[in-house]
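Incident log, structure service

09:12 report received: a user says their structure output differs between two submissions of the same chain.
09:20 pulled the input from the user's history:
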Amino acid sequence: MKKIVFTIGGRRLEVDLEDDFAQYLSNDLLKNKVALDKDNEISKLLQLYLKSLHKEFNSEEQIKIILNQLEGSNK
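09:34 re-ran on a clean worker, output below:
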């Protein structure tokens, strides 16, 4: 487990994450210009959260399409 520390709206928050996911998250935050060593704006984090939900939604839609294709090819 790896500890990630966020500062949001002046509050310091610590979360324990699995090592692989912590590395993925750190890289993604860095790519999106979110600093782990300073305060972050709530609006910026909300935008990233919504972006992540959109990505998950698209992935779920793709899974449904693939499952439907697999079911169709088994008939």
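09:41 both user submissions now match this output. Likely a transient worker issue. Closing.
09:42 reviewer note: The CA atoms of residues 67 and 73 lie 10 Å apart. Residues 42-75 form one domain.
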